Amino acid sequence: MKILRYIHYLYLVMAILFLYEGIVKIQHHESPVVVFLFAAVAIFMFFFRRHFSNKFKNNSK
């Protein structure tokens, strides 16, 4: 399944969207804490999934 190699980049796209939404909320004087928290989780998931994807790829050789 080749799609699993690229699925972790989806987390980066989501993080960028959440960061954009947080900036918009700041400009509208709303609380962006939850949105920035989701962005942080998405960035963490990107590195987590990439690490284990590379680990799995190296073990299968």
Largest sheet: none
What is the beta-strand fraction?
A: under 5%
Q: Which structural class do you get from the secondary structure elements?
A: mainly alpha
Q: What global shape is seen?
A: elongated
Number of helices: 3
- Identify low-pLDDT runs: none
What features would you describe in this structure?
- It is a single chain.
- The chain has a domain of 41 residues.
- Helix content is 84%, strand content 0%.
- The chain is built from three helices and no strands.
- It is elongated, with a radius of gyration of 15 Å.
- The two termini are 16 Å apart.
- The model has no long low-confidence stretch (mean pLDDT 90).
- Keywords: Membrane, Transmembrane, Transmembrane helix.
Short recap of the structure:
Keywords: Membrane, Transmembrane, Transmembrane helix. This protein is mainly alpha-helical and about 60 residues long.
Note the main attributes of this structure:
61 residues; 3 helices; mainly alpha; membrane; transmembrane helix; 0% strand
Describe the SSE topology.
Layout: H1 3-6, H2 8-27, H3 33-59
Helix pairs in contact: 2-3
